[in-house]
Amino acid sequence: MDPVLEELGRVAAGLSFGEPVIPVVSTVAGCPVDMGEPGYWVRQVREPVRFADAVEWLAGQGVTGFVEVGPHPVLVGNGLMRRGGDSPERLFAGLGRLWADGAMRWTPPATTTAGVRVPSYAFQHQHYWLQPTALAPIGDGRLDHPLLRDAMELPDDNGVVLTGQLATAAQPWLTEHVISGSPLLPGAAFVDLALRAGEHVDCPAVEDLTLETPLVVADGVQVSVTVGPDRAGRRSVAIHSRADGEWVRHATGTLGAVPVAPREPWARQWPPQAEAVDLDAFYDNLADAGFVYGTAFQGLRAAWRDGDTLYAEVAAPPGDSRFALHPALLDAAIQIVTVADDRAKMPFSFAGISWWRGAEHARVRLTMTGEDTCAIGLADQSGAPVAEIASLTLRRPAGATTQDVPYQVAWPVLETATTEPDIPVHHATSPVETLRVIQDFLATDTPRMVVATRNAVPVRPGEDVDPQAAAVWGLVRSAATEHPGRFVLVDGDDGDKVRLAGDEPQLAIRAGAVHVPRLERVRTEPLPSPLSPESTVLVTGGTGTLGGTIARHLAVRHGVRHLLLVSRSGPDAPGAAVLAADLAALGATADIVACDVADREAVARLLAAHPVTSVVHAAGTLADTVVESLTPQQFARVWEPKALAARHLHELTSDLEAFVLFSSAAGVLGGAGQANYAAANAYLDGLAAHRHAEGQPAVSLAWGYWAEASGMTGGLTATDRHRLARAGVRPLPTADALALFDAALTAGAPVLAPVRFDLPALRRAGDPPALLRELVRPRRRQAADREWTQADVLQLVVGQVALVLGHSSSEAVNPDQAFTDIGFDSLTAVELRNQLDADTGLRLPATLVFDHPTPTRLAAFVHTRLHGAAPDPLLAELDRLRSTLDTAAADADYETVAARLEGLLAAWTAKRTGSAAGVDEASDDELFSLLDDAHRKTEVIRSGESRNAEE
């Protein structure tokens, strides 16, 4: 090597040397030396290799693992490379041995070579060493905490373990948090454990914490909180427990060194300027939903609502101040999310937890940031910040009551005095006859009317029902939605007298007892499908969106192999060929046939040619209009494909496995503008109850609307959807709807209502419909004693107009623009009238927006009514004239009527100006000039330019 040393020295002298990032031990010196001197590299070529000295020096520094990187591994037992060998496998095998020996921290790569399959489940671990049966030995210090008592540092800077034990004798409140029948450690307790662990290792903030597995409380359960090593001011945290077997992980997260600074002092001014929330029966309602809280966890003392923000006062049980954040205190703060959503939920994941001080009483601010997310702030009684959670995600526990279950109408006995009606009573026999009676009644000033039926509703299990009478109830329910307070439905047995009970709009009398309808949740158990694989299922409306969805579902979920899909267009319907191909790919054969199921003879021929074993009747159509304008033709258009077709299918089939009717919630709840549709669907509900009483299979599903657009829901406008949302009905995702369909097949009930309610929206709407009083507690608005100014009324009217039209702010409404120009129709007019009735306590006419065509003029009218002034009889006569004109036949002599009206206006104008006496003596030119002037003023008023009711 001597001949190259001189040249090597010159080359080395021309280089710039840097400080090595990884420490290097020189085998020239047997220890670390300065390698930035050019002469070192000359010496390392010529001088002996002192490998043993270098290894001995490393061993003296605590190094226990060695690996050789090079093509000829001969010096240590673990080489990572070999020339001509399987280099990738050898590399990973060597690294794996180092990792298994604890010599390195390394996460094996997730990628695999082609053709290698890895299990999709988490790797199963088996421990082959004995587990200690006693608590871990006391570490370097005892902890002053109710659930943790020891902390122990792990060797080699591998973190800290805090241990403790659940002792129900010392902490009896632990057993008072019962979810779905099991005492569970609340999610708030895991937050406290993480905070206490973070405080111990100087990482007092919890950046995130995810709850994985519930911890069932039992005496003697061991608890372990493991904190990982410091990584740039952040540490991992995991919480485990063990009763008799292996350790179970319940929560994982990350601790941070610096909590965020407290936000603005929102809790200084107290109580908040917000609407107080009635907490009567709050914990009883939670218990009904599967959340049974003992005294310690009933810490919610008061609550207020301000839009999506809730405020509350909460308290922890007294006597133990050693918690960082008492679990019962934080749990009570989380409970108020039920006020916002009406669905009791459990914490799932936390983010951004900062804690500054302890407290036994706290003021809470909870802001909903999403359907299942919120932010929470806690302050003490002086307003000083206690803790903050930037984001909390919640979820419903398995087994707890949820919204997404079907409902049914129950008929509890109403213990109240009854009275004989002192208002007109119509004894209904058919929906068509009742429609005529209702229309005549609404043209009068009579405040209320009773519609009496016989056997329209199944009050007692197995009770028979007359479907025609049931249809009357659907019709009147819809009319009552358009005209609140004007109709009372009373159903009785033979011999029962018609009676009224308080403000109940619907009641049934059986053997003298008064029953009222209340919607309640139905719990269903998963049972085998009643449909055999070789059955043939008839689906009406089978080529429509819902029919096609059900057909595919029957093939996939129920294994049905033969489907008879019927619609008016049959195989010519859009998408029919694609549907048949899809079903064939699923292993099912589909006969797609054109048939009008409202034609009895056509249905008979269909069933003779295609015997069926089950029926799903999903056909239907809409023809929406307000009840006053509903014609017999519009009624028949909806009735025939829904109700009449169901009757034909009932009479012409036998020995069925299933008879499923697709009804609508409109028949149960009522629907503005849908009296015909509600009547037809209520007939289906009555028919199912009738079949049930006869021992035949039947279930009628009174659906809420599906999120997936169909032939009937595809025409819903944005305003329509806003109306449904304000009515508290949310769309059903298809997957959820199909699950409810499956549950209904085996539920054993004749009528179910698969509806997704938005209960907070119903609460915000004020007093709920009587049918929903078991789901939403009544909360009436107090408006009777208010002193209304003109500005107050205008603000009310404009705000309600914005709400009805779906605007986010009332600023979007021009109060001087005509209702017809800003998007109002007959249904939105009815909704606005009903909203104003509820807010003011008045009973306003249905023609409100037509009689007073701008918000400003409507507000003036409402202000006059609020201050007790009787309507001007002359104006009332003009209102009736306008109604007559609105309903005039299309072939009326328009020109003659217009000329007569212009003449009347001219005469009235002349009378006002004192010139009436001169009209008779006026010349033709003067008279035509007068008429032209009146016509011009009429056009100004029609165009909306007039700003004064006197113009």
Q: Which labels suit this protein?
A:
951 residues; alpha/beta; 14-stranded antiparallel β-sheet; seven-stranded parallel β-sheet; elongated
Structure characterization notes:
With 951 residues, this protein is of the alpha/beta class. It is 33% helix and 18% strand. It contains 26 helices and 33 strands. The strands form six sheets. Strands 1-2-3-7-8-9-6-14-17-16-15-13-12-10 form a 14-stranded antiparallel beta sheet. It has a seven-stranded parallel beta sheet with strand order 27-26-25-28-29-30-32, sandwiched between helices. A hairpin with a 5-residue loop joins strand 16 (373-379) and strand 17 (385-395). The longest helix is centred in the C-terminal third of the chain and has 21 residues, at 632-652. The chain is elongated.
Main beta sheet: strand number and arrangement? 14 strands, antiparallel
- Strand portion: 15-25%
Helix % is 25-40%
Give the structural class: alpha/beta
The strand line-up of the biggest sheet is: 1-2-3-7-8-9-6-14-17-16-15-13-12-10
Termini separation: 116 Å
Taken from the alpha-carbon principal axes, the silhouette is elongated
The count of β-strands is: 33
Mean pLDDT: 82
Number of helices: 26
Rg is 39 Å
Stretches with pLDDT under 50, minimum 5 residues: 130-140, 399-403, 779-784, 936-951
